[in-house]
Structures are given as structure tokens and as C-alpha cells.
Amino acid sequence: MPKVVSRSAVSSSTDAQPTASSAASLRVYYCICGEFILVIDKNLAALPRRKTDNAIIIRAQETDTAKARTFKLNVTINDPILLQRQNGHEKQYRFLCTRCSLPVGYQCSPLPIKSAPFVYIFPGALTQIQGQVPTDAFDMETTLL
């Protein structure tokens, strides 16, 4: 059998400017059970929050003034629930982790996912480090009720 010899060189520089591809990198988020849930083009901490329940807002549909985020969800959708809000009621189609069925987010219109203008992620539901509980996981325990 012939002997395989390979050579490679890796070059890096701390002085190098970030490239367009490194700035546009995707971020992966996991449920606290370790299951992959979300891949998105922006850090969740940098996205706006909803005033009613502090949920992270992900724009799912493009408008004339705003561009939609690029993201993919790996979730199951539960039956809708009806919540009482200050200005009436709100119907939520909740997203559940495919492994542990923990609620991780919702949208306000029926299937398919991304059919509503916005998708909302519960605060503390996702982490970037697989198997690590986010620091804000228990800050708003009553959010899901």
C-alpha cells in the first residue's frame, strides 16, 4: 500500500480585518436540554424585545422599510393558546423543543412557521452553549403561564 504524505500550512493574523463572510456568520442556539433549535444570522441579544412579555423579536417577513432575518427553527408547534393581554386577547402558536417539549417561542398566526410578520423567542429559553442553562432562564417563570 502506498504511503500518503500531505502537507498543509495554516496562516492567521490578529491584525487582519474581518471579512464579509466572518461578519455574516450564523449563530446556533440550543434548548437547555441540548437539542438544536435555532440558527440565525444575528446574535439574539442584539435583537429587540417585545414589551408585553420581554420576548425576543425576530422579523420573519420583509416589509418596505425592514428586511427579514435569515433563520431556521427546529421545533414542533403546539395547539394554540389564548392569553389575556391589557388590550384584549392574544392567540399564540407555541414552538416546542423536539426533544423535551419545552416551550421556546411562538408566533401569532397558524402554520406554517414564518407565516406571521414576527417570531418571538422566550427570554432564557435558548443558549449558545449546548447543555448550559442560560443565566436568564428563571428570570420570568410566569411568562409561559
From TrEMBL:
InterPro entries: STEEP-like, STEEP1_dom. Belongs to the STEEP1 family. This is STEEP1 domain-containing protein. One of its GO terms (cellular component) is cytoplasm. Residues 21-135 form the STEEP1 domain. PANTHER family: STING ER EXIT PROTEIN, UPF0428 PROTEIN CXORF56. GO terms for biological process: endoplasmic reticulum membrane organization; endoplasmic reticulum to Golgi vesicle-mediated transport. It holds the Pfam family STEEP1. The lineage of its organism: Eukaryota, Fungi, Dikarya, Basidiomycota, Agaricomycotina. It comes from the Eukaryota. Transmembrane segments: none annotated.
